[in-house]
Amino acid sequence: MAVPKRRVSKARRDKRRSSVWKLATPNLVKCSNCGEYTQSHKVCANCGYYKGKEVISKEA
Ligand SMILES: [Zn+2]
Fold this sequence. Notes:
It is built from 1 helix and 4 strands. By secondary structure, the chain is α+β, with helices and mostly antiparallel strands. The longest helix is centred in the first third of the chain and has 11 residues, at 10-20.
């Protein structure tokens, strides 16, 4: 079984975690219908449009 030859120093360990373990930000794009920022590949939360069509009705 593979076993680490040397202990990873605190500096190397923390550097690795700081660069890799970043929270992924949601991909924000502007809505084609209302111009509001929404997540890409998702129905717009403001107007309910997706790909130029109304998917969720916001009236009534
Ligand atoms: Zn919209």
